[in-house]
Design brief:
Layout lengths: L9 E3 L2 E6 L12 E8 L3 E3 L13 H11 L4 E8 L3 E8 L4 E8 L5 E4 L24 E11 L2 E14 L2 E13 L12 E4 L13 H7 L7 E6 L9 E5 L7 E9 L7 E4 L2 E3 L2 E2 L7 E5 L6 E3 L1 H10 L8 H19 L4 H7 L3 E3 L4 E3 L9 H29 L4 H12 L10 E2 L10 E5 L2 E5 L1 H4 E4 L6 E4 L1 E3 L9 E4 L1 H6 E6 L4 E7 L1
Parallel strand pairs: 7-12, 8-11, 19-29, 20-28
Antiparallel strand pairs: 1-4, 2-3, 5-6, 5-14, 6-7, 6-10, 8-12, 9-10, 10-11, 13-14, 13-30, 15-31, 16-19, 17-18, 17-24, 20-29, 21-22, 23-27, 24-25, 26-27, 30-31
Helix pairs in contact: 3-6, 4-6, 4-7, 5-6, 6-7
Amino acid sequence: MGSGRVALLLFLSVALLQALLPAPAEGLVRVVLKKLPVVERGRLSLSAERRRGFLGSGNGAAAASRNAELEEEGDIVALKNYLNAQYYGEVGIGTPPQRFTVIFDTGSSNLWVPSSKCSLSIACYFHERYRAGQSKTYKKNGKYASIHYGTGAISGYFSQDSVKIGDVVVKNQDFIEATREPGITFMVAKFDGILGLGFREISVGNAVPVWYNMVKQNLVGDPVFSFWFNRHADEGQGGEIVFGGIDPSHHKGNHTYVPVTRKGYWQFDMGDVLIGGKSTGFCAAGCAAIADFGTSLLTGPKAIITQINEKIGAAGVVSQECKAVVSQYGQQILDQLLAETQPSKVCSSVGLCTFDGTHGVSGRIQSVVEDEVEKSNGLFDDAMCNACETAVVWMQSQLAQNQTQDLVLQYINQLCERFPSSMGESSVDCSRLPSMPDIAFTIGGRKFTLKPEQYILKVGEGPSTQCISGFTAMDIPPPRGPLWILGDIFMGAYHTVFDYGNLKVGFAEAA
């Protein structure tokens, strides 16, 4: 999640009491927080922005037992699991350290926290604020900075100070003092700021990321960090970030590594997606994916996410454009595919898109002056083109399974009913979990499977329990997309290693 980044935030309208307990000063450095019970559970809502979260936690005795084993491995930041959707960690900025709850985000590269000079944004009054005058190691910078996160944004200026992560102190670290946090995005957030662990290529102001300085200042043994999540919300320990090594107790078996294909986010190539063991064919030729600790859910192209949500019975929102395309152009699209027309050209052949050489785009040509009717028609044209391209993907999948034409069109109509809502939310019947299919992702030639209990979020208790699909749709066009974002839903099941030294990402079953 850097400047201009399209991402997903998960919002939780719930309250939490927090208590901080000091970690034992032995062996490896750990940041440990204690979780208190949730005193109010509200409705889980999803928006076009992704919700971040970490809260360091853990059992002191358990943490101590691993310290000796990991002394040479690296530094640890323990995480706290908040309803399987939010993870927080604590850092200190300045001398003496001023404590902040932050998100360690592999999808961005800057560190920012609210500034004491933030007086016009209500959000700042709900969080800890950095006070430069109270730090002996503060150095003025003053360069303006602004970061946009979907529907939220912050702005302010750069400053420089020491940053403490556990017992490790990073010196002369550039970070952003946020003086403006407009809107409610950060007002309702459980965290104070964000600490980015992405590459410098997406760093606002070209600031050197904290992780880079940890390596440069020889504060870690190896240029590697790894994430382990504890997906059991009723347990105190939420997980750990290990800086400089890998905790062998966090995973089972060996990791499967894939090279980073594009620096910025931790991006790599992913293969086929399977539903209930059956290939969807959508990524058979390869798709791009990023491992992102800052995204709570698992995000993918609408065409395949809709199929997944249909199979698990997730209720979406009826798309009239989708139904219109199927009823008016369904047979033409089918005929084109049976005639082996190149799929990327089908929608232009039926007149719903134009072809730009690689894929279909809206055929609308916007004039300099257009009235409200023309604007509305233009938006409709865009939706019809997108619906057509989605239908092509679905039809290809069904034809590959040798389905009859009538069954194909019938199935596509059913999928139109499962289109995800504009806010991304898809609820499911909790009683259906035992009958839901496994969903698998092919990475490095290996299938990484998610079971229903791993990809369904449960919120609440007893009769009021809500079950939310962990899959949400977001279409990112070529050349950047199609792009999958493997967020906490995936990383909760698979221990993830970010190997900065060898530019690769590794996955193994989480312990």
